Amino acid sequence: MKKIFLPVIGAALMASLSMCSKPQAASTAAPSAQANTNPMGNTKGRNLLYFDATANFKRFSYQDSVKYYLAKSKDAGVTDVIVDVKPISGEVLYPSQIAPVMNEWAGFTKTEKFDLLTAFIEEAHKLGMTVHASTNIFVAGHNHFSRGPVFTDPAKKNWQSLNYTAEGMKLISTLKHKYSAMVNPALPEVQKYELSILKELVSKYPKLDGVVLDRVRYDGIEADFSDASRKLFEKYIGKAVANFPADIYTYSKDAKTKDGKPERVPGPLYKQWIEWRAKVIHDFIYEARAELKKINPKLIFGDYTGSWYPTYYEVGVNWASKEYDPSQTYSWATPNYKNFGYAEALDLYTTGSYYFEVAKSEAKNIDVNTVNRTEAGQGKGKEDWYTVEGSAEMAMKITKGKVPVYAGVYVDQYIGHPEQFVKALKMCRAKSDGAMVFDIVHVINEGWWAELKRGLTE
User: Fold this and answer.
1) What is the dihedral of CA 351, 357, 358, 364, to 10 degrees?
2) What does the domain layout of the chain look like in residue ranges?
3) Prediction pTM value
4) Backbone CA torsion sign across 25, 28, 31, 32
5) Which fold has domain 34-219+277-457?
C-alpha cells in the first residue's frame, strides 16, 4: 500500500507500497474448488477500510479506540476491515514466535495489555463486519529508520534486494529514497520464512475471516540481480546467461527518460526475465493459498496490488486471469506470460486506483510534469486507465470475473477536495464490486466521516 506521512509528537513520521527456450513446466493448475464458492458471501456492494499499522499504532494501542472506530466505520457503510498486522518493518502486531513483535513506534510504547487482532475480530463480529489481516510479504525493513530483520538479524541481511541501478549494483538498504527494504522473492529461504508467518497467523486466529497479502512483489524492474537470482533464472531457461546483467538490460549512455535518468535498453533475455519473475510470484501465491486453506478452508484468501497493469510487470506481478493474454496488447509480454496470472487463486482482490482524476473524461487534465506517481511500477502518462474509472474498468476486464474486485482510493490524494473523494468512492462502487479505502487515519485526521458515508452509501 501507500506510504503515509503523519505528524507525530511534533515530528514528521513516515509510516506505514519471446518464449523461453526450455522453460520449466508452468504451475497453471486451477485453484481448489473453494475459490469458486465465494467465501466472501455476497461479493457485490462490500466496502473495505484499511487500518495501517504504524500510522495508527498509538491510537489502536487502546482497546476502547478499537471499539469506537469500528462503530464509526460501520455507521459509514464499511462492511470489511483490513487490519495491518505486519508492516514494512517486518515486525508484527500480534504475539509471534517467528517474527519480531512491534511494541513501540515513534517513541510510543504500548502499555495496555490486550491482543489487537482479537479485539478487532470480536468487536467487528459483534457489528456484523468481516475482518481481514493484512501482511506485507516480501519486505523486511523500514529503510528510513534502518529498522527490521534485514538490519538487525545477520541471518537475514543477505535476503535484501540487490538492485541494478544506473550507478551499478546497490543493496536496497543503501537506497534511502526507497522506504521499503524489499527482499528477494525468489529465495527459497525467504518464501519459507514468509509462509511460516502466514501459517502461524491463520493458526493463531481461527475466527479471522481472511488475509490480504500486500507487497507480494519485487521492489521494481531493478530487482533482483543477485547471483542467486541469476542461477535460478538460468535453471528456468535451461542455459547459462552469457552476459549478466547485460543480457537482461543495460543503461544507455546517451538516451534519457522524461525524468532525466539513463534509459534502460532491453537485452536479448529481457522478456524471458520478466516472464520468470512473474512465475516466481505466481507460484508463491498458489502455495500460500494451498497452505492457508489447509489450516482454515473457509479463509478468504486475498491480495492487494496497484492498478497500473500495463507497467506492473516491472514488479514481477501478473494479477490478471490466465484467460487474459497481455502479449496481444503489450510488447513486454511473451505468449507464455499469461500462464502466470493468478486471479483464479484469489477469493478477494483489491487494487489501488490511486489517481486524483476520477472519470475517464478527466484524463485530459492530467499534468504529467506535476502528477505524483511514486508507487512501485507506476509510470507517467495520460491514458484513461490513469483515472479511477479507467483503472477499475481495466481490473474488471482482465480478471475475467474470476475474483471479486474492489477498486481502492488513497484518501490523502483528495485532501482539500472532499467532493472529489466522494466522487471517487462512488466510482469505485459503480465500476467494480465495491470500494476499498486507504486509510482510516486520513478519514480521522480530515474528519471525513460524513464524506465517507456519502461515498459508500449514496
Assistant:
1) -120
2) 34-219+277-457
3) 0.92
4) negative
5) TIM Barrel (3.20.20)
